[in-house]
């Protein structure tokens, strides 16, 4: 089959494309746009009913952007798009982000190449044809030279396995699978399991309506004031007027946001009074700026870390009136080594009469009954259970997909001991497969829409390289994967991050390989991948394109 024949054609029940993309979230949407602009035929599959990925699913009360936020949590590829879209708040609520993504889908006519409500159930690489075949839940089968997994870093819900939970007869919702119909808490006794970002954002909102909220906490958390505020028209105007320099700043910044780098300074260089003054100023201002303006060794030095941890613990004691509850809320890990959380009324919710805290470390859940949750200390009758229990993050959805590479070797086999990859985008034995925000990439440690664009631009260039050179397949060597793993680990091991149990280390999922799997070099990563491309894709091997008659003969 010639390349022309393969372009968006159909043989029997198999559709043929240049590229299949799995996922129509922020990454998959841009991947579609970019590859289409390159003149490729592209098909996107997504299990949801519309675009948005994580923003389509996470509709729980209080769901908001909890990073540095708007207007810079957005695509940068189109200046017109930036100019025509107004963001209302710094911490945009879920519906505002979804509105934006729907607008992007309309504006760039993305939906015509997306098949919704379609799960990719299997993906197999055909070595002779140098193509991937995917099978979907709707029976559609597609073949493509390239497979792009834009499956989301936080998309496979972590469902707790607690005795009796399936017998619970009341309403039960996972925050990452929240219903599209309105959920009423009015007059209900609600239990919430989980105090990560989703629990901490939703608990104060649920408490406003519910008869009673029982918070079931496994790990007490450090959380910081969200500092959400309206974005002033002059701020939007300024961002627009300086859009090119804003983008340049975003590219240069460690986290992908247009902020000037904070001068390197140890927390231990300041007196306790000076530190207190800085922490207090940042606390009052709120927002993600707290982390961006901190001392540079908070995530590196135990002693420096303790100064901030003590400050936040004192704040919790100040906010929460009941001393016993306040003590249960005291986190004991290194601060910011679990995903930093922005809160708006979380600690204060424990001052309400209708909110109680159960510390599962001293009072664990024994089982559920149809009408209650039973902990060691007694029974808590409930009508609703909210599971804010997070995700099998970063690798979980790739493993659920479990693509089969060369020789039918599955990803589950390849990743049985660790998440082998090169540049966080490619895996040896899985030619022509690319991941966006995969393990080993900056992923959740970088402005995710921008990171997706930058990874996708690199993938597009690699695809272009293959087509220009009439190459059929590309994959990394095992040696380059090993070197990459060492680089990722060396960056992580210079910090306190790997020393805390978190979804960043895989510790939240039983049996998951345990190590820190994000690339912590920030913007350095994009220089690294550019260098690899400039050195003729150093660390990769290429296969010439098989002729169609060779492929058929084998
Ligand atoms: P997280 O941050 O993984 O939080 C999940 C929470 O659920 C966390 O407090 C967990 O405790 C708790 N958890 C998980 N399983 C259980 C069981 N079995 N029993 C009790 N408690 C449990 O997920 P989120 O959805 O809040 O946030 C994910 C990201 O989404 C976030 O960073 C934002 O970027 C958006 P643990 O700490 O593991 O002890």
Short description:
It is built from 19 helices and 20 strands.
SSE arrangement:
Layout: H1 3-6, E1 9-11, E2 14-22, H2 26-37, E3 42-45, H3 54-57, H4 79-84, H5 94-107, E4 114-115, E5 120-126, E6 131-136, E7 141-149, E8 171-174, E9 189-193, H6 197-209, E10 212-217, E11 223-225, H7 233-241, H8 243-252, H9 272-285, H10 289-292, H11 302-319, H12 323-328, E12 341-343, H13 346-349, E13 355-359, E14 365-369, E15 372-375, E16 378-381, E17 384-387, H14 396-401, H15 411-414, E18 433-435, H16 448-468, E19 471-476, H17 478-493, H18 524-534, E20 540-544, H19 548-553
Parallel strand pairs: 2-3, 2-7, 3-4, 7-18, 8-17, 9-10, 9-17, 10-13, 11-12
Antiparallel strand pairs: 1-2, 5-6, 6-7, 14-15, 15-16, 19-20
The protein binds ligand NA7.
Could you describe the 3D structure shown?
The protein has 554 residues and is of the alpha/beta class. Among the domains are: 3-51 and 110-156 and 393-473 and 529-553, FAD/NAD(P)-binding domain; 159-218 and 352-390, FAD/NAD(P)-binding domain (3-Layer(bba) Sandwich). It has 19 helices and 20 strands. Strands 1, 2, 3, 4, 5, 6, 7 and 18 form an eight-stranded mixed β-sheet that branches. A five-stranded parallel β-sheet has the order 8-17-9-10-13, covered by helices on one side. A hairpin with a 4-residue loop joins strand 6 and strand 7 (141-149). Helix 2 (26-37) packs parallel to helix 16 (448-468) and helix 16 (448-468) runs parallel beside helix 18. The chain is globular, with a radius of gyration of 24 Å. The two termini are 14 Å apart. 46% of the residues are buried. Residues 1-7 have low confidence and may be disordered. It binds ligand NA7.
